[in-house]
């Protein structure tokens, strides 16, 4: 309404309107908690009254390598909330938080992408060139997360007969800078996982190779 007014009236209303709206508490209300609770309730209804995600680790089913096919859409900011509410009826929000934590669940996903001065990796991803790679650091939840994933996504065209794949391993946040500088290796991490029996020898070998690459 304000946009239409400013377009057709001899004076602008938007600057004054924006300042006054920003001073109102309702306009600055954060609806994330409400959306998460609505997502949980919808999911319980879909599963016959059972909370299947209770005490479940969102990363529990994830391995090191993923064959992925994704479709991305651009959504106008004005329609984001409406779209979220529509999707909640069919899919739950995936949230990340530490076990036994009383903190409000945080659905945020933070990524830091690496590239050279010529932005070759970015250009390859935009053009969807065969073999194009994206290399990034990613963590889930709040900014104080201590587990960081080092990931490499490789794009393959349909004519190659191969599927696009995402490879990754996790590393403690305190070791990230040293790892990037080449002062930290995954040897101790791999040995610990081997002793705990949490990953196969094939996965551990791939983790070592990926870290060295």
Describe the protein.
- With 213 residues, the protein is α+β, with helices and mostly antiparallel strands.
- Helices cover 35% and strands 15% of the residues.
- It contains eight helices and five strands; from the N terminus they run αααβαβαβββααα.
- It has a five-stranded antiparallel sheet with strand order 1-5-4-3-2.
- A hairpin with a 6-residue loop joins strand 3 (133-140) and strand 4 (147-154).
- The model has no long low-confidence stretch (mean pLDDT 81).
Tags for this model:
5 strands; about 210 residues; five-stranded antiparallel sheet; about 15% strand; extended; alpha+beta
Distance between the termini: 55 Å
What ranges have pLDDT less than 50 throughout 5 or more consecutive residues? none
Structural class: alpha+beta
Helix coverage percent: 25-40%
Order of helices and strands: HHHEHEHEEEHHH
Helical stretch tally: 8
Instruction: Please list the strands of the largest sheet in the order they lie side by side.
Output: 1-5-4-3-2
Globally, the shape reads extended
Assembly form of the protein:
single chain
What is the rounded Rg?
22 Å
- How is the main sheet built? 5 strands, antiparallel
Sheet-strand content, in percent, reads: 15-25%
**Mean pLDDT over the residues:** 81
The beta-strand count equals 5
């Amino acid at each position: 309404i304000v946009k239409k007014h400013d377009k057709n009236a001899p004076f602008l209303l938007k600057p004054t309107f924006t300042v006054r709206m920003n001073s109102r508490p309702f306009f600055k209300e954060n609806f994330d908690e409400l959306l998460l609770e609505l997502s949980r309730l919808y999911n319980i209804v879909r599963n016959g009254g059972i909370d299947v995600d209770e005490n479940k680790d969102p990363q529990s089913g994830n391995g090191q390598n993923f064959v992925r096919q994704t479709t991305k859409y651009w959504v106008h900011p004005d329609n984001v909330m409406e779209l979220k509410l529509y999707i909640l009826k069919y899919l739950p929000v995936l949230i990340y938080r530490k076990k036994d934590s009383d903190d409000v669940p945080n659905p945020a996903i933070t990524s830091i992408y690496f590239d050279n001065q010529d932005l070759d990796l970015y250009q390859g991803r935009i053009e969807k060139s065969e073999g194009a790679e994206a290399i990034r650091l990613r963590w889930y939840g709040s900014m104080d997360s201590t587990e960081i994933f080092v990931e490499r996504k490789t794009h393959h065209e349909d004519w190659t007969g191969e599927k696009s794949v995402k490879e990754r391993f996790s590393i403690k946040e305190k070791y990230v800078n040293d790892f990037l500088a080449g002062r930290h290796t995954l040897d101790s991490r791999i040995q610990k996982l081997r002793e705990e029996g949490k990953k196969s020898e094939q996965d551990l070998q791939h983790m070592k190779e990926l870290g060295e690459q």
